Amino acid sequence: MLEFGTNEGNAKPFNLAQYRNTLIEAVNNMKAVFPTAACVLIAPGDRGVLVRRSLNVHLKNTKLAKHKLSDKKKLAHAVANQRHGKKAEDQRVDIFQYSKIHFDIERVQAEVAASTHCSAWSMLHAMGGAGSAYKWTRQTPPLMASDMIHFTVAGYQRLAQQFASDIGWHALFEREKRDPDADQP
User: pLDDT digit string (tens) for 38-54?
Assistant: First the structure.
């Protein structure tokens, strides 16, 4: 099982052609070392983008709320310039930027899997597609950590169960529950 793409998809700018070449090299290396091994390429799950709370909300909740409005505006402007350089404060954030990249990675993995006689499995689809990182973070219990990259224990368990089901392992476990000695000589 080869699962990578989350960290690679974080590179700015993300280079899909370079990712494809790296993946092909990794699969070929694995097959050279383990020529009879089965191969599954696992595409990354959804990933969210942390958006900073409004500076106004932040200031409202601090001791600075006691200062004069003009002082707060000056400080807010200074902090914004420090954090963001001279970028506009109303700059939009694409909360699906990693979902889009992970869909591209998934597509490349499926193509490489087909050309190298591997299987492919999409963690992104198992989670529910684009935007699922936000849903998984807000579920009770949460299935995704607050960084919206990593999963909680419950999230990893759900993904493992889905993977096992998708590749047919659940049928084996169910058969063992019904008849534990079925495969014994």
Answer: 999 999 999 988 877 65
